[in-house]
Amino acid sequence: xxxxxxxxxxxxxxxxxxATFPVNLNSTFATSGARNVRKDTGTYGPPVExxxxxxxxxxxxxxxxxxxxxxxxxxxGTYAFTLGEVINETxxxxxxxxxxxxxxxxxxxxxxxxxxxxxxxxxxxxxxxxYVTPDDTLWVLDTGRPTINESxxxxxxxxxxxxxxxxxIDLTTNSVGKTYTLPLTVHYPDSYMNDLRFDLRPxxxxxxxxxxxxxxxxxxxxxxxxxxxxATGESWRQLNQHPSTQAISExxxxxxxxxxxxxxxxHPLGFQVEGLDGAELNQCGEAMYYSALTTDYLxxxxxxxxxxxxxxxxxxxxxxxxxxxxLGQRGGNANGFSGDSLGNIYMLMPEYNAIYIYNYTTHLxxxxxxxxxxxWPDSANVGWDGYIYFTINQLPYQADWNNGVDGRQxxxxxxxxxxxxxxxKNTLLM
Length: 430
Ligand SMILES: *[C@@H]1O[C@H](CO)[C@@H](O)[C@H](O)[C@H]1NC(C)=O
Ligand SMILES: *[C@@H]1O[C@H](CO)[C@@H](O)[C@H](O)[C@H]1NC(C)=O
Ligand SMILES: *[C@@H]1O[C@H](CO)[C@@H](O)[C@H](O)[C@H]1NC(C)=O
Ligand SMILES: *[C@@H]1O[C@H](CO)[C@@H](O)[C@H](O)[C@H]1NC(C)=O
Ligand SMILES: *[C@@H]1O[C@H](CO)[C@@H](O)[C@H](O)[C@H]1NC(C)=O
Fold this sequence. Notes:
This protein is mostly beta strands.
C-alpha cells in the first residue's frame, strides 16, 4: 500500500499573502502575485491512500475481513469471475475458486423465448455486494441478473428464482456455509438486490439467528427492503415502492462538472435512475438510514418496522410506511453508505468526488473527505483497522451510458482513509 497524497493549498495561500509591485498584468493566470485568484483545491479531509489497482475487471462492491483480507465483486458480463479476493497490489483471484464462479449452464437461460438470469443456486452469477459481519463471516449478495449481449444489444434479463441469493462463506475454511434463496413473492423478476446489512444479535428476531436487511434498487421501479431471518430462512418485504425508496424522475446530476444524461444505444435520451441504494444501521441497530441513488433526500426508519413480518402481521406494511422519517436534503445524490463504531453514517457522493457524513445527533451532513481521484465512489466498507475502504469504478463513463463508447480508463481503484476520532468497525451487532 502506498500513500500518494500531497496538499498544496497551504503553499499557495502563503505565497499569495506576499503582494509584489509593479503589478504583473498577466497575474490572473499565476499562482502568486497581487492578482492571485482563489481556486478550489478539490481536496479536504484525511489523506486518501491507494490500496489496490484494478486492470482486468471494473469493481462494484468490496468487504474487508477482520484479518485485513479484501474481497471484491464485479457485475457480469463477460468477466471470468464475479467474486474475487485481492492477492496483491494489482491482481485479484476468483474466490473461493473459479468453479464457484462458473455456472455450468451459463449466466442466462431461455424459457419460452424469454431470456432469464441463471437459476443456479450453487454458483455465483453476478455478485453486486459483500459484507463481513463482526463474527468474520463473508456474506455474498448475488443478483442473479447478469448483463447479456443479444446481437449487439445489452440488456439485463429478469431473475429466475434460485439465481438471486445470499450466501455465507466461512473465512477460516473458505467454504460456503448457508445459501438463502428467495420466493417470487419477495424477490420479483425485476428486483435488483443492491446492498446488505446485518444484525446478528439473538434478540433481533424471535428465532434468535439474526437478520439480513437487503435493499432492492430495481431500476424497473419495484423498490423496497427485503429482510431474511437467518435462522429460519423466511424472507419478506417492506416499504414497497414507498416514495422514500424511489428515484427522483428526470434527475440531472453532474459528474466532474459535466451534466449527465443517460445515452443508451438504441434508446431515446434518458436520465440516471436508481432507486433505494445506500443503507446503513445506526450504532445499536435500532434505525436504518437510507436513500435512493438519484435523490438529494435522506430517510430513516426504526428497524422494528422492517423486522415486522407482513406474513404474520396484517398491519406491518402500513405501520412501516407510516413511520418513515424524511430527514431533509443532504447536499447531493449518494451512492453506497457505510457506518462505524461511533455511529457516523458515511455517504458516497459521486457528484462531489467526496464522502459526506450524516450525523444523526446534530441532524446535519458534514464533510469527511474529498479528492479528485474519487471518480464515482461505488461502495464502501469500514475495516477493523480504523479505515474506510471504497471502490472507484468511473461508472458514468461506461459504454452502456454513453452511446456505446467506453470512456473508462484503467485502473479502477480501492482507496482508503483513516476514520475520524479513532472510529473503527461497529462490532456491537452480534
Ligand atoms: C506573463 O507575461 C510575460 C510577457 O508576455 C511572460 O513572459 C510571462 O511568462 C507570463 N507569465 C505567466 C505566469 O504566464
Ligand atoms: C501479483 O500476482 C500476479 C499473479 O500471481 C503476478 O503475476 C504479479 O507479478 C504480482 N504482482 C506484484 C506486484 O506482486
Ligand atoms: C456484443 O456483441 C456484438 C456481436 O453480436 C459485438 O460486436 C459487441 O462488441 C458486443 N458488445 C459488448 C459490449 O460486448
Ligand atoms: C437487544 O439486546 C441489547 C443488548 O445486547 C439491547 O441493548 C437492545 O435494546 C435489545 N434490543 C431489543 C429490541 O430488545
Ligand atoms: C455528531 O456530532 C456531535 C456533536 O458535535 C458529536 O458529539 C458526535 O460525536 C458526532 N457523531 C455522531 C455519530 O453523533
